[in-house]
């Protein structure tokens, strides 16, 4: 979780106003949720991830405040045509 949090902070610093696509394991997605939503060590809920599920986070810079937006999580629309 710590490494994922540090990586997210590095991306925020170096890649503002850019679109970043990360392909990763579900555990990394869970760690990203923990960091972005400041969960702390005692998680009260689990994040379920479908294989190839797509999540969209957006960092919005507002003076004196960090704001993350979750547009969607675990979307699998792209699998509809797969049998």
SSE blueprint:
Layout lengths: L1 H13 L11 H11 L17 E9 L2 E11 L8
Antiparallel strand pairs: 1-2
Helix pairs in contact: 1-2
Structural description of this entry:
The protein is α+β, with helices and mostly antiparallel strands and 83 residues long. It has one domain (2-79). It is 29% helix and 24% strand. It has a two-stranded antiparallel sheet with strand order 1-2. The mean pLDDT is 90.
Residue fraction in strands:
15-25%
Shape summary: globular
Instruction: Write the H/E string, N to C.
Output: HHEE
Helix count equals 2
Output the structural class: alpha+beta
Radius of gyration: 14 Å
Biggest sheet: strand arrangement: 1-2
Q: How does the major sheet shape up? A: 2 strands, antiparallel
What is the chains' assembly state?
single chain
Low-confidence stretches: none
Q: What is the averaged pLDDT score?
A: 90
Q: How many beta-strand elements?
A: 2
């Amino acid at each position: 979780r710590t490494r994922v949090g540090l990586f997210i902070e590095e991306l925020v610093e170096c890649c503002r106003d850019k679109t970043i696509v990360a392909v990763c394991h579900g555990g990394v997605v869970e760690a990203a949720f923990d960091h972005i939503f400041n969960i702390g060590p005692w998680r009260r809920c689990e994040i379920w991830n479908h294989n190839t599920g797509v999540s969209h986070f957006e960092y919005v810079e507002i003076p004196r405040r960090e704001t993350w937006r979750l547009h969607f999580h675990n979307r699998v629309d792209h699998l509809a045509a797969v049998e």
